[in-house]
């Protein structure tokens, strides 16, 4: 049944139409048992209205439902005609100040970055535009559907909660006012009654689970037994599977199946069969069988039609309720009451509860209907929003579990409403204190993550795909947690404290399960077999990152909470570490007389984990203790004595050692999973709660320890203790050559360890660790990012951590540290032009720290290089000393002592000693560099102390003193200072000299500060001396660098030529010699100066004679040079022929049947032309053939092997130019001016126009008779002979003469090749070189290409013969000459036939009946056709008329016709005002001509008294034609262009006329040949179409034709989004399109990339865009994908690419995919660039290049877009 194409529409039951709503309502009012009455009504009528056949008829159903079912309810509520009743209610209502607009999919939403409480607070476009936020920093996104506008919600906005529109009523609001007081008492009662019954009915029927039985009170008396086979949507099966299955199961067409599948996907269910039970059951079993193979089967139910009917009405009813409550807040309040009223079954029995709890059982369509009702009722009523929130929280666990097991996306789950509730601060707080929401969420989350190991930690190893799927769904709970925490409390009640801490406990439990998860053990010997799973754990960590930070933020707000949280966290950590000192015997370490006990543990041998969230949380809390000063205020309340520093540092230290060892290459065999983990550990997304906190934890521990002890433990964990405790260990190592790897490893470990010390002492920019604030921290991040290189806004944002509001805080500090620079001169506003960059302010460079802890290694070396370069440019020494640091907070103050501790000095001394004795030891420069940095830090520290010292204090930091003392061990070693002085002169340490010099200088300064306060001046002079000498050194350095650069350049050149050689080797069959310079044909003709001052004439008997020039070109393939000659081998240009609608004035016109289409006369709307382009590269024809054959062979092999796509379609003759890879599909032969070959002797006596027309007419008539005779050889021979008698061959005309083709075979072959290609592409037909239309297509392509180039030049205001790009010049020349020579390879009679017909259009001839009128002819195409076909006639004419004469007369004749065409179509608006000068010659002439014209048109033309405007319009209208003609004859005959036209400026009208051998007063053409012109004009005007036009019955193109432009785009991108969001799919009844896509050529919006709008094109399914390109752009399309903000280029079915959009943000950047959401504005320059690509016909070429550059583009299914 489903396969019936025209579903039968059952007749409407007349009784339904006779129902009176008023009567029914009246009956109900009288009724004692209203419920029964209403149910009976529904039971009777609903099945009569809904589900009367296999297909729904929504409009009819809605109409009847309103009439019979809903109408009575409205009457009942109002107690009168609802048409009066509802408006009354609406008037009495005090409208809400909440907007509450529910967002459609794709609608733009706006959030204010300054005022929104969190990023989920959004405004609709209308509210946004009327709000104060439009001038703030806002962010724009497109809604995914669901959610509503927060305008008017005072809790959502810090400022400006109301827009203009919603502000109106705010003055009168009393928050708690009961909206019911505005309703009459009786209305309240009646509404309550009917709402209760109907809401109950809807809930009951929607949640009804029986398939063939109705609730008792709805059962009908007479029951017809019809069923539906109902197919439900799931997220497991694909569209294709469903469509395929349906075709099999219910025997429908593919189109119907697509329709079903689309509806199932959209609404969640659709009946696919209607009939009796077995019939439906059979379809069900087929579907189930077909879909159950790999997955669970599609859900199908056979349902009784009356159940479906009631369910459909149930949905209708819910929407109806939603619209009724829109009349009055009172009605809304009643509905809320009804919904939340507890039913007879107690807890969870209210209607709202029942719906929520059945959510996952309902189909998609039903869910979204009731979700929307909730949003417009419960969430819009302040009182009931709270009550609903409580219900939601109470059911939370159950709802989430339902969601996790359900397979629908979250947006279709009621659980998704959490964002609407939890983000309201007052509700969230209420739910935390009253419903213990925090704990519930966390516990629910934990319940769903059940993979644990023996220690109770999470374990994700080997978890299944299903678990992975669930894990993804569970993650949404973390989002809920984030919503609840996002707004922080301003006041704490005891209740809140208690409940928060309870939640904190639960949270610690969660973190405990993560502490130590996914441990790794170093793999030795063999490589691991399988990469272990690591992503799940990191996903969890990443998702929790903001929650962890927010937990800390909450703790920071209340001292009591902070103290309690700290205690709890510490307890959990101790519990985690229980048994941490167990096991092996402790070991004792001792160096320099210090000794410490520690456990025996080796990272490289035992288990270690990168996940330590508990210890990291404690670190965070510890910093808060310091920052909030709680640590000093209430030390007695804190468990500080329980802290065991060695325990605190142990795990973070292991983790950092792990990183160091991985870096040292010790963990190579553990594979990529570990590398990835370490990458994320440091990555900007995770580091805040991972790496950063580990550093802080170490700082915490160390600040409480003896630094010597710490350093020894650290040496031991780095497994370096032995090296440093054993004298000369390094020496021994270096001598063992076999252990080179070990040496290298140890060196790296030492470097890493030194780096760690630098970080522990130097990283003081977290508030609480150092005396800084949050701003200082961000500033420092930005300074270091910009030290690497200047960055664009988005790039910089990406490198900074975002907080939970997606803010980096960058805007607040960026001005202070950077300049925004655009790379334009003069500078312009970046938003309009291009991308700008932030550049670090020079004064910030001194804050640069080479060992900044967030640098990756690559960034560090880039930054070092950049900073040194900068210093050299500023002529400073290149030392990069440590910056001056802010002081530590007191809790961390003792950290500085690491630097002057004995063990530290010992380490420094040891390494310096190695460096001094550089040959004997294993050491590295990086090691030394770090040591120097550490010394520098210590000196900076001491200097700071000295400068800030209070009078009475003694500075205890005495590093300077310590380094000047000789060391004790190694024995008798010199002091550190002495070693530095030695190193200063070491030749092998050139790079570090500046730094050592800086250290010594600083040391002296400190010494002097200590000695006396007046020493500073001495230090200064010393300083200048050093600087001077360093300047000299600088010079030498620069010289050295220049030399290095030169050498490098030479090396690169050598490499390049090597590469080139390899390339040639690989392509030996193509290249016989080396590829030299790109050789193009040397354009000889144009640049020749020989014809200078005489007036140049391009055509006619007076044509300027150009001396013959030889032309030599080089083949790019074989590098052989060859002369272009008639008889030599053909040389060809790579060319690309394509159909084009770029110039089209009528995009609706398509060639219906290409086989029958006659292209002879081009319509002036230029609706479909053929364009030829070329990259201008020349080859031998035979070289090209060989190349193309090899490409073809290669492609065939390749396709057999792995069916790879390429960017070009070999089967269609496409190839890439072997030199520039430009897409091509044929070649054009290079030719000399062909006219010279055929020009016979010039007789002095040439006919004038009149004579010439007469002669040609005779000739064409003779030919026609001859042809007719040939075609009918024997029949009616008598008549033929009669004709023969009539036929008097004109004098000198010899139709039997056939000229010899002068061209070589190779050239002839290429003439045919290109001709056939043009024909094939232009008409989209199979190649057939004999088709009579081939020559027409060649002429057409020549004409069209010239026209399109003329348009480009005019649009860009460029001179006609200015310096044209070489490739264009070459292309036009060869194209024109080719078209002129093509007749020699065509059948003479065919070309003559074309000429006769073309000629007949201008000079009437009885033999042709149905010719178009002159209004419907493009005159330039006509001219080109006539001129190029003429030689075919002229070659048989021996009367002495030259080709040139013919050209001139043809040109004049066409020009005259064009003038008439212009005069007929110019709609001259009469305004006399500016005619001051007396009428000139031209004006009088044109007026006279116009009068003649009126005479012949029977005065249908408007009378115009003056010639001024006429002449103006003729001049303007004819210009494009003259320009095109000038180009045409220039390339045809090779006459150089007059120098005047080579520059831009005035219109060049006179120059053009001279060049084209036209009188300046064009009207003279008519006067000189008045006898014949009158006849011609008369015949043109008599055409019926001209009459129709003049009588206003049809349109005609007028001149000049305007250039086509891409559509106008709005300045603000959001208005485009808005426009697109209102766009619904044209095929699926009002459904919003998912990928609305705008055609930039014609402005049509399309529903792209979607099944609903696929159509069939040439036997294949294609998407809306591809289909559109076929009519709009002849296969080429330019689109804007509105939701992605991305330009799409398409060409044909297989080619496409994305292109950057013309919209930029204020930082000059595009935002493809709208990920950042900054406001976007139109960039005109970029848009013009796209338009230019289009005008130049370069879209296909652009796609080709993009696909060559990015192979993934080739694989995309472009045809389905
Ligand atoms: Zn709004
Ligand atoms: Zn508003
Ligand atoms: Zn704002
Ligand atoms: Zn060659
Ligand atoms: Zn090329
Ligand atoms: Zn279009
Ligand atoms: Zn569609």
Folded structure, characterized:
The structure is a single chain. The protein is an alpha+beta fold and 1761 residues long. Helix content is 51%, strand content 7%. Strand 19 and strand 20 form a beta hairpin. Helix 39 (902-916) runs parallel beside helix 42 (976-984). The longest helix is centred in the middle third of the chain and has 51 residues, at 1016-1066. One zinc ion (ZN) binds next to strand 13.
| Count of runs of 4 or more consecutive helical residues | 66
Small-molecule binders here are: zinc ion
- What's the oligomerization state? single chain
Number of strands: 25
Q: Report the uncertain regions.
A: 1-7, 824-833, 1014-1030, 1063-1093, 1275-1282
Major sheet details: 5 strands, antiparallel
Could you report the average pLDDT, rounded to the nearest whole number? Answer: 85
| End-to-end separation | 33 Å
Structural class: alpha+beta
Strand content: 5-15%
The percentage helix is: 40-55%
Radius of gyration: 44 Å
Brief summary of the model shown:
The chain is 51% helix and 7% strand.
Key features of this structure:
51% helix; 5-stranded antiparallel beta sheet; alpha+beta; binds zinc ion; 3-stranded antiparallel beta sheet; 25 strands; disordered N terminus
